[in-house]
């Protein structure tokens, strides 16, 4: 038995080493599989990152474009507000000028009305004076505020 014991121990040791090597081989294959999976996932993540990066850059361009449009529109709105304010101011000035012209016309009409009233009163006074003079002289009154129209002469044919 003695010579076979070392042999069984040697066989057992070799068997143990073989099992250990088999286990290590399985572990290496599993780790290689995990490494390959991790690499594929990392590649997919890199591709996704690149796609996200491109989308982010496109978003930045869109945002920059929209910001530029917004600023342009803000400037236009401010210009329009300025024009609107100027138009309102011009309207007020025009309205004031128009009111001043109306007032001038009304003042002129009032002055003309006063002049007409004064002339009518003066005419009435003159007519009374004339009538008084005619009555004093015994002549008929020629002015009785009614006008007689003379008949038109018929043209001879």
From TrEMBL:
Keyword Coiled coil set for record:
yes
Which stretches are tagged as biased composition: Acidic residues? 143-157
Where is the segment annotated Disordered?
134-157
The entry's keywords:
Coiled coil
Coiled coil region boundaries: 21-48
Descriptive protein name? Putative starch synthase 4, chloroplastic/amyloplastic-like
The species this protein belongs to is Dorcoceras hygrometricum
Q: What is the lineage of its organism?
A: Eukaryota, Viridiplantae, Streptophyta, Embryophyta, Tracheophyta
């Amino acid at each position: 038995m003695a010579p076979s014991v070392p042999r069984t121990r040697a066989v057992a040791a070799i068997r143990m080493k073989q099992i250990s090597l088999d286990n290590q081989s399985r572990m290496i294959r599993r780790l290689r599989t995990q490494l390959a999976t991790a690499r594929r996932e990392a590649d997919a993540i890199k591709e996704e990152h690149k796609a996200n990066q491109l989308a982010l850059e496109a978003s930045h361009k869109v945002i920059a474009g929209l910001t530029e449009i917004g600023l342009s529109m803000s400037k236009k709105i401010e210009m329009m507000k300025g024009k609107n304010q100027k138009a309102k101011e011009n309207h007020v000035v025009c309205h004031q000028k128009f009111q001043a012209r109306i007032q001038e016309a009304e003042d002129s009409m009032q002055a003309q009305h006063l002049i007409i009233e004064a002339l009518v009163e003066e005419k009435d006074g003159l007519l009374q004076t004339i009538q008084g003079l005619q009555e004093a002289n015994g002549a008929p009154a020629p002015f009785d505020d009614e006008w007689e129209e003379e008949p038109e002469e018929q043209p001879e044919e």
